[in-house]
Write a structure and sequence with these properties.
By secondary structure, the chain is of the alpha/beta class. About 50% of the residues lie in helices and about 15% in strands. The protein folds into 3 domains: about 40 residues, no CATH class; about 100 residues, Rossmann fold; about 60 residues. The chain is built from 9 helices and 7 strands; from the N terminus they run ααββαβαβαβαβαβαα. Helix 7 links the parallel strand 6 and strand 7.
Length: about 240
């Protein structure tokens, strides 16, 4: 009866000998004539670029802490965390526990939560920035602030650089435009800038701010600054 052949109690009861010691991960025991003939162990492995991606977050993106929050068993979560260089883990977490953790961390500092499942939706909505990763559900996409359809960490890095670059250019245009306008008002109030010339200068300032903002549409040389292990891709600083 194949339904009972893989149950340890049944095997031992038939005198097939002790099964191999249990380890973490999914185990599949092969039996031949009621005796253990082989054992296959399956466990999740991180992406090839996982360690490089995690390692560059603090250096390139000023991320102070990286946490791995998962509903899987602690042995599996710890195995993955050790492989990619994450030192703080929270295993066997329910959606409610994930939400509580994210809320607690967000109360202390801005947070970015990367999730790929329906049970991550509450945490995605609670984080400062939530990124839905991969081909998730509509619920996950609605809860997240950004959605990455391609399940690649290099795309996450691109998104981080795009957001940082857009913010930098927006601040340059806004702050620079206001600073030049204030300077023009000072010169006009001092009588050094006639009204007509002042109006022309203000128009030039407005056009300069708009032109600078249009730089967002120009693609930089690279949006990935870590070794993603992709052919022809080297670690570069984005323009």
């Amino acid at each position: 009866d194949q339904r009972h052949a893989l149950q340890p109690g049944f095997v031992r009861g038939q005198g097939a000998g002790a099964l191999p010691p249990h380890e973490s991960g999914l185990e599949c025991v092969a039996l031949v004539d009621g005796r253990v003939a082989g054992l296959c162990r399956f466990r999740d492995e991180p992406r090839e670029d996982g360690s490089a991606f995690v390692g560059h977050l603090g250096r390139r993106h000023r991320i102070e802490r990286v946490l791995l929050i998962s509903g899987d068993r602690e042995s599996e979560v710890r195995h993955l965390a050790e492989r990619v260089g994450i030192h703080e883990i929270h295993a066997s977490q329910s959606p409610e526990q994930k939400l509580a953790l994210v809320r607690a961390e967000t109360a202390r500092a801005p947070t970015l939560f990367l999730g790929d499942g329906i049970n991550d939706a509450p945490a995605l909505a609670a984080a400062t920035v939530g990124i839905a990763f991969g081909q998730g559900s509509d619920v996950t996409a609605e809860a997240a602030g950004a959605v990455i359809l391609d399940s690649s960490l290099s795309r996450v890095d691109e998104l981080l650089h795009i957001g940082s670059r857009m913010r930098s250019i927006a601040l340059q245009s806004a702050v620079g435009g206001m600073a030049l306008s204030v300077a023009g008002m000072f010169f006009a109030a001092a009588g050094w800038l006639p009204p007509v010339a002042g109006a022309l200068v203000q128009e030039v300032i407005d056009v300069a701010a708009v032109v600078n903002a249009l730089r967002v549409a120009l693609p930089p040389r690279s949006l990935i600054d870590y070794d993603a292990g992709l052919p022809g891709l080297r670690e570069n600083s984005p323009a």
